[in-house]
Design a protein that fits this description.
The structure holds two protein chains of two kinds. Chain A is mainly β. Chain A contains no helices and eleven strands. Chain A starts with a strand and ends with a strand. By secondary structure, chain B is an all-beta fold. In chain B, the strands form two sheets. In chain B, strands 2, 4, 5, 6, 9, 10 and 11 form a seven-stranded mixed beta sheet that branches. Chain B has a four-stranded antiparallel beta sheet with strand order 1-3-8-7, with no helix packed on it.
Chain lengths: 113, 114
């Protein structure tokens, strides 16, 4: 079964601290993995996208890693800011026509002052 | 370049009614996909339209239907609404029918079924 599991479900950190969010997937055949940031009641906004051959990709204070062998990814946020409070969703797509983006349940991050 | 626009932003319907949600795709994109996101959950894929034809569908019943217009905008229709249909409905546009490109999401339509 094609699934994407994220951990933790929720996380509270202090402003300025770093954090790492995890994503495990069983989607096959794998095409690419994306991390999105979603503010409450809004649509997801893309942070990174990685293909099979990419191990790491950065977007400002966000750094995503991918291990296609173990089917694991992580999103590391450095020097967190209050505006980082949001849900972070891991999305894996299958290599076939017709899309089929499979979303994880998300990690709800709260950054406190 | 315009982004993805969804309308309406909020909607309240009664169980058993029908609803139509609308999505205007980003300029240059020819593919639209729809997702249902229940509160506190990740989005679930409903279906995708590429060049006016449905070319992928998730695990949703036939009362969820849609279409895509020649300008690549799209509609999602839901018949015989049920209470569990209450959710945020997201539309995303992309270029091409493969999942290799970038997706631009709209802000969604919040549907409440009472």
């Amino acid at each position: 079964k094609n699934q994407v599991e994220q951990s933790p479900q929720s996380l509270i950190i202090l402003e300025g601290k770093n954090c790492t969010l995890q994503c495990n997937y069983t989607v096959s055949p794998f095409s690419n993995l994306r991390w999105y940031k979603q503010d409450t009641g809004r649509g997801p906004v893309s942070l990174t996208i990685m293909t099979f051959s990419e191990n790491t990709k950065s977007n400002g204070r966000y750094t995503a890693t991918l291990d296609a062998d173990t089917k694991q990814s992580s999103l590391h946020i450095t020097a967190s800011q209050l505006s980082d409070s949001a849900s972070y969703i891991c999305v894996v797509s299958r290599y076939n026509a017709g899309n089929m983006l499979t979303f994880g349940g998300g990690t709800r991050l709260m950054v406190k002052p | 370049e315009t982004g993805v626009t969804q309308s309406p932003t909020h909607l309240i319907k009664t169980r058993g009614q029908q609803v139509t949600l609308r999505c205007s795709s980003q300029s240059g994109h020819n593919t639209v996909s729809w997702y249902q996101q229940a509160l506190g959950q990740g989005p679930q894929f409903i279906f995708q339209y590429y060049r006016e034809e449905e070319n992928g569908r998730g695990n949703f019943p036939p009362r969820f239907s849609g279409l895509q217009f020649p300008n690549y905008s799209s509609e999602l229709d839901v018949n015989a609404l049920e209470l569990d249909d209450s959710a945020l409905y997201l539309c995303a546009s992309s270029l091409g029918d493969r999942a290799s490109g970038g997706y631009t999401f709209g802000s969604g339509t919040r549907l409440t079924v009472v």
